[in-house]
Specification:
The protein has 263 residues and is an alpha/beta fold. It is built from nine helices and seven strands; from the N terminus they run ααααβββαβαβαββαα. A seven-stranded mixed beta sheet has the order 1-7-6-2-5-3-4.
């Protein structure tokens, strides 16, 4: 049954994406940029609905009140394709720094360009990165919310942290609050996994880290904050969903946490 539901969801997800992208293109491209953002927000909300109705996976958000007014940086743990879009309905005007190759995808790349996302060559240095930072500051000055995954890539639940220092440089340069976010999406929609699992979990938006810290101090504080909150939420999520098959990284981390608690 799980496999059947997962196949049905995957089919519905891609059909929903393609049809909306084609049918709503006239509305999207003829609308002002901010008004056009309603199209991807509605798409994200519809996919959350599909996950609920077909797979039986739902989430609740804690800490919405921690999102500051104006420009800020969202710093979520990254585990799944789901977490790249699931929170779009709750964000005002987000901007992503993304790899430039995504801009080359027909139609999708045009959608991204319309929202003034910031493409970057991951191997770039020097003047290219200076231009990326200039673009980032411009968008943040307009009150947008930058989405950046501090680890840079998807990691399975419970995996050892491997943070990149880039977020500390951006924090130093743009001087806005950073909002850490944790959730264990990967227990329900794993990376490159066909099967999706039912259950209910929490997305926890933590209090913002205000600007003004030394970059090294901020970097260490962000890692400590995210990892502590992620560990706590991993225990909660697994206890609330005992049916879930856990990846080896989660099994190992839970054993470590239980040993620490018993010591």
């Amino acid at each position: 049954m799980l496999l059947l539901r997962s196949i049905l969801f995957n089919t519905a997800f891609y059909t929903n994406t393609i049809l909306r992208m084609i049918l709503l293109s006239p509305v999207y491209f003829l609308s002002p940029r901010k008004a056009a953002f309603r199209v991807p927000k509605a798409w994200a909300a519809s996919n959350n609905w599909l996950m609920e109705k077909i797979v039986g996976a739902t989430f609740e958000i804690e800490g919405i009140e921690n999102i500051p007014e104006g420009g800020c940086i969202f710093a979520p743990k990254h585990q799944s394709a789901w977490d790249t879009f699931a929170l779009l309905p709750y964000q005002r005007d987000p901007v992503y720094i993304l790899k430039r190759e995504l801009m080359w995808i027909p139609l999708f790349g045009w959608y991204v360009a319309k929202q003034r996302m910031i493409p970057v060559n991951r191997g770039a240095r020097g003047k290219v990165m200076v231009e990326v930072m200039k673009r980032t500051r411009q968008e943040m000055d307009n009150g947008r919310q930058l989405i950046i995954y501090p680890e840079g890539t998807r990691k399975p639940p419970g995996a050892p942290p491997e943070y990149r220092y880039g977020i500390a440089r951006i924090y130093r340069d743009v001087k806005v609050p950073v909002v850490p976010i944790v959730a264990h999406w990967g227990l329900f929609w794993g990376r490159r996994k066909l099967v999706k699992y039912p259950g209910r979990f929490k997305v926890r938006i933590l209090p913002p880290i205000e600007p003004g810290m030394d970059p090294d101090t901020f970097y260490a504080h962000l890692i400590e904050t995210l990892e502590k909150a992620s560990d706590e939420l991993l225990i909660e999520t697994v206890e609330a969903n005992p049916h879930l098959p856990l990846p080896p990284t989660a099994v190992k981390r839970l054993a470590e946490l239980r040993a620490q608690s018993a010591a």
